[in-house]
Amino acid sequence: MKKFGLIVLCVVALSSCVTKKKFQATQTEKDKVEQSLRQTTSDLAECEKKFGLKSAEYAALQDELSKAKAKVDELSKEIDYQKNANVKLLDQLSALSVISKEGAASIKQSLETIDKQRGEISLLNAQIRTKDSVNLVLVMNLKRSLADVNDTDVNVKVDKGVVLISLSDNMLYKSGSSQISSKAGVVLEKIAKVINDYKTFDVLIEGNTDNVPIATNCISDNWDLSVMRATSIARALQKSYGVDPSRIIAGGRSEYNAKVPNDSKANKAINRRTEIIIMPKLDEFFKLLEIKN
After folding, report:
1. Mind listing the pLDDT tens digit for each residue in 7-32?
2. What is the pLDDT averaged over residues 131-147?
3. What is the mean pLDDT of residues 87-109?
């Protein structure tokens, strides 16, 4: 739009500029009038010398002389105006030329930046599409592997760009305990097999509780319980099912990551869960978001 405005301004300026042909025509007319003025002045002088008085012819010549002088003055002013107008327009066009060069350089730099960013965005989109495709395949493999497990105990989905496996407290542990049950081992084994097939992904394990307070000799509160349950799953994946421990992150969120309000027995059961989150390695993930200069 700026470029278009600059072109329009240049066209208007050029259209306002006095052409060489018009300027020469004005100059020629002035020369003719000046020549006529000189002749009239000569005739007037001759007439005055010849008759020694202001006869009708002399008066006519005097009138013609006055008109010629007036015309010369008018043409002189017109020529001066045309000269000044052309000088101003030339200055404006010179300024516009400077602006256009600077503008062109700025536009070129902007286009280069846009092209670079477009390339980076295309690459990022391609990487994200690849990651999303891998996530979908991973979810399908997990669901196929866990097809015989009760849907209320295990939920597998893609959530915010990662694969999330939610395991119910009822299936994994006894009430108020972090010890894994035998039936949980069967499920963890199937999950570990899929995890081991995707070695470029990290495994984040999060323990979650309801808001019922707990305090025993070994567990101080729900923070302790959530963390201990997460580390129990982490140890099982490492020691029993061969998952590389360098890929595992274990943490607890206590009662502060509730999925639903803790206002009923059913809702509390939903909130008591352990989530296994399979996601790109953090360093690889940050590389996806990195904008190179």
Report:
1. 444 444 444 555 666 667 777 777 77
2. 74
3. 65
Alpha-carbon distance 249 to 203, whole Å?
6
Asked if 174 contacts 181 with a C-beta cutoff of 8 angstroms, the reply is: yes
Please, which residues have CB within 8 angstroms of residue 238's CB and are 6 or more apart in sequence?
244, 245, 248
**Using CA atoms, how far apart are residues 37 and 57, in angstroms rounded to an integer?**
16
pLDDT band at 2 (very low <50, low <70, confident <90, very high): very low
Q: Enter the tokens of residue 123.
A: 């690459």
φ, ψ of residue 206 in degrees (nearest 5) = -120, 125
Report whether 273 contacts 158 (CB < 8 A).
no
pTM value > 0.70: no
Question: What is the Cα–Cα distance from 138 to 278, expressed in whole angstroms?
Answer: 9
Give me the percent of the chain exceeding a pLDDT of 70: 62
The answer to whether the Cα torsion of 211, 215, 216, 220 is positive or negative is positive
Tell me if residue 40 falls in helix, strand or coil: helix
Write the pLDDT tens digit of every residue in 148-205: 777 678 888 888 778 889 999 888 988 778 899 888 888 999 999 999 988 888 999 9
Give the gyration radius of the chain's Cα atoms.
Answer: 47
Q: Residue 87, exposed/middle/buried by CB under 10 A (0-12, 13-18, 19+)?
A: exposed
Of residues 95 and 252, more confidence is placed in 252
Spatial contact of 121 and 129, defined as CB atoms under 8 Å apart:
no
Are 204 and 268 within 8 A, CB to CB?
Answer: no
DSSP state of 260: S
Beta strands in the chain (DSSP E): 154-159, 162-168, 201-208, 248-252, 273-280
Q: Could you say which DSSP state residue 53 is in?
A: S
